[in-house]
């Protein structure tokens, strides 16, 4: 006859019965001792009668504790029944015992006729839900980017039995995850729009390029204002730097992007340092944009540039932790805009204001050793302002001002070399070359000192030209070629026959290269002046060298002066027109002699 083994529930029920009897307790007394209530008598009866097949120890813990049942006694029952507790459920019960008790009471209140097996199965299901929830949270933690703290807090709340607290942290995690998922999609959308804008730029569709860039930044407007600002700045900076190195104007895209950004954050809480940076970048972009405009429009743009630069200076000045770079950068932008306006309006108050601003920045930075890179730019701007005020292109320039300018530019040149700053070095060296050339013109042009100063100027200009293979700045390059042409023009006139030919050819080359960017449409008066210079070089060469090239030289000279004559005539520049026609008359007379 086969002996049927008893279940763990039957064995543990029999043990409870024996323990109760040994202690002389009734089922009612045990119910009150274990549960604090007589309502659990039926449960005890079910256990003792063996009708509960597989109760988890945690579900009957109050009875086991009240009866003093040891762990070894429970283990013996489990061994006889070949019963293996679920480790996950054991851990779950250990972590949320109080919560399961509360849940069990609610279940019993709602289902007073439920037996012990039903209660056990219900609590086991809740415990398994806990295990599953923990596993889910662990999986979320592995893949989460910004919600780990919320998930960990929720997990801790569950461990403590605080489901309501866990739910509140999970709500935070849910919202954060939704935000993260959404912002990922938005960033992807913005990236696509930027790429489309880049393609439009390559096709010279600048309006579409701007629209795509603007749309890309605005995608981020409702999610992260700072990220939106950063993208606006990056795209505007890309356009700004690209325009500086291109013969085709498109810096207006930078201006419009920055202006749109300022509109978008008008009522937002943005830090002063971020706002100041936006105003500074806008001022610089506007000033660059002015180079592409005619006088009236350029004046309006420069006035706007001054407004933005002033705002940047004001905001940076108020910052206690301002870096030694930001404020002087804003001061340079403000002063340079004043200098540009002076070039248009010739109002000396503008240049005095610029010198005052730059002198303040220069004096502070001269003692700040960790601000050396920006020092070069401040020094270059200050030196340029001093030269403009002194009228150094005129014979009446101030020697004291020239001396001060040389000191400032020399300090800038040294600083630029120390910091390997090519652009700052180019600017300082060009200005030093201009000073040497100007000083040479104040002397007898055939003197050895004048010749030496001209050679110093040529050396500075030629040195700078070598750097433009690495730094292609079209307007600055045009200016450099023009200045080189000017000093070579004078130097050729006072050279011997052998060197005259060399310097004349180099002079023409410099002037022609300057005309690659100085056009009759953008700078008609300067263009006409250079055409007159080219005509003068050909005319002088024809008279001085004669020979086989004389007729060709005279024809080229006449051609250049006639082009200048047309421009002067259109602009009603009577004085320049008179000089131009006088030269044309002499050249045509010489050409007529050749036949």
How would you sum up this structure, described in words?
78% of the residues lie in helices and 0% in strands. With 595 residues, it is mostly helical. Among the domains are: 8-86, Orthogonal Bundle (434 Repressor (Amino-terminal Domain)); 116-191, no CATH class. Helix 1 packs across helix 3. The protein has helices at residues 8-23, 27-35, 41-48, 61-67, 71-80, 87-95, 97-110, 116-143, 148-159, 163-202, 206-218, 225-244, 251-264, 272-290, 295-318, 326-345, 348-365, 372-390, 399-418, 422-441, 448-467, 474-493, 497-514, 524-545, 550-570, 574-594.
Main features:
434 Repressor (Amino-terminal Domain); single chain; 78% helix; mainly alpha; 595 residues
Explain the layout of strands and helices.
Blueprint: H1 8-23, H2 27-35, H3 41-48, H4 61-67, H5 71-80, H6 87-95, H7 97-110, H8 116-143, H9 148-159, H10 163-202, H11 206-218, H12 225-244, H13 251-264, H14 272-290, H15 295-318, H16 326-345, H17 348-365, H18 372-390, H19 399-418, H20 422-441, H21 448-467, H22 474-493, H23 497-514, H24 524-545, H25 550-570, H26 574-594
What's the short version?
It comes from Thalassospira profundimaris. The chain has helices at residues 8-23, 27-35, 41-48, 61-67, 71-80, 87-95, 97-110, 116-143, 148-159, 163-202, 206-218, 225-244, 251-264, 272-290, 295-318, 326-345, 348-365, 372-390, 399-418, 422-441, 448-467, 474-493, 497-514, 524-545, 550-570, 574-594.
């Amino acid at each position: 006859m086969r002996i049927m083994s008893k279940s763990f529930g039957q064995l543990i029920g029999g043990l409870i019965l024996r323990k109760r009897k040994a202690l002389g307790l009734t089922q009612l007394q045990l119910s009150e001792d274990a549960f604090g209530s007589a309502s659990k008598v039926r449960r005890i009866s079910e256990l003792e009668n063996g009708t509960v097949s597989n109760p988890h120890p945690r579900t009957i813990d109050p009875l086991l504790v009240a009866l003093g049942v040891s762990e070894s006694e429970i283990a013996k029952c489990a061994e006889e029944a070949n019963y293996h507790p679920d480790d996950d459920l054991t851990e779950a019960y250990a972590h949320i015992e109080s919560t399961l008790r509360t849940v069990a009471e609610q279940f019993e209140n709602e289902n007073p006729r439920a037996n012990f097996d039903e209660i056990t199965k219900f609590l086991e299901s809740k415990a398994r839900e806990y295990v599953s929830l923990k596993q889910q949270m662990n999986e979320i933690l592995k893949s989460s980017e910004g919600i780990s703290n919320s998930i960990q807090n929720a997990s801790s709340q569950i461990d403590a039995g605080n489901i309501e607290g866990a739910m509140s942290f999970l709500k935070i995690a849910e919202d954060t995850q939704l935000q993260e998922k959404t912002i990922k999609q938005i960033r992807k959308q913005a990236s696509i729009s930027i790429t489309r804008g880049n393609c439009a730029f390559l096709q010279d569709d600048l309006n579409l390029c701007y629209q795509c860039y603007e749309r890309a930044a605005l995608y981020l407007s409702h999610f992260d204002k700072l990220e939106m600002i950063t993208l606006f700045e990056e795209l505007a900076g890309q356009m700004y730097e690209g325009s500086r190195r291109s013969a085709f104007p498109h810096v207006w895209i930078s201006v419009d992007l920055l202006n749109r950004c300022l509109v978008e954050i008008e009522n937002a809480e943005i830090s002063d340092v971020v706002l100041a940076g936006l105003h500074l970048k806008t001022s610089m972009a506007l000033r660059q944009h002015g180079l592409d405009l005619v006088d009236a429009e350029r004046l309006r743009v420069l006035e706007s540039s001054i407004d933005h630069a002033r705002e940047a200076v004001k905001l940076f000045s108020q910052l206690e932790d301002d870096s030694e770079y930001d404020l002087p950068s804003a001061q340079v932008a403000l002063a340079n805009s004043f200098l540009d306006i002076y070039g248009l309006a010739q109002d000396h108050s503008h240049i005095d204001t610029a010198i005052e601003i730059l002198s303040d920045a220069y004096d502070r930075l001269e003692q700040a050793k960790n601000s050396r890179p920006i020092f070069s730019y401040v020094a270059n701007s200050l030196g340029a302002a001093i030269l403009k005020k002194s009228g150094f292109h005129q014979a009446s320039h101030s020697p004291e001002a020239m001396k001060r300018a040389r000191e400032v530019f020399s300090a800038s040149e040294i600083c630029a070399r120390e910091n390997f700053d090519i652009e700052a070095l180019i600017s300082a060296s060009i200005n030093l070359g201009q000073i040497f050339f100007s000083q040479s013109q104040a002397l007898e042009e055939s003197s050895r000192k004048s010749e030496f100063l001209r050679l110093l100027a040529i050396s500075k200009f030629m040195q700078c030209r070598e750097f433009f293979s690495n730094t292609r700045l079209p307007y600055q390059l045009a200016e450099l070629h023009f200045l080189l042409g000017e000093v070579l023009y004078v130097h050729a006139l006072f050279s011997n026959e052998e060197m005259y030919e060399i310097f004349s050819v180099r002079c023409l080359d410099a002037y022609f290269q300057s005309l690659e960017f100085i056009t009759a449409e953008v700078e008609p008066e300067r263009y006409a002046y250079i055409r007159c210079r080219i005509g003068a070089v050909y005319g002088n060469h024809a008279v001085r060298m004669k020979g086989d090239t004389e007729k060709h030289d005279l024809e080229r000279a006449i051609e250049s002066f006639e082009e200048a004559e047309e421009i002067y005539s259109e602009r009603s520049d009577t004085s320049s027109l008179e000089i131009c026609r006088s030269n044309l008359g002499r050249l045509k007379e010489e050409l007529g002699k050749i036949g």
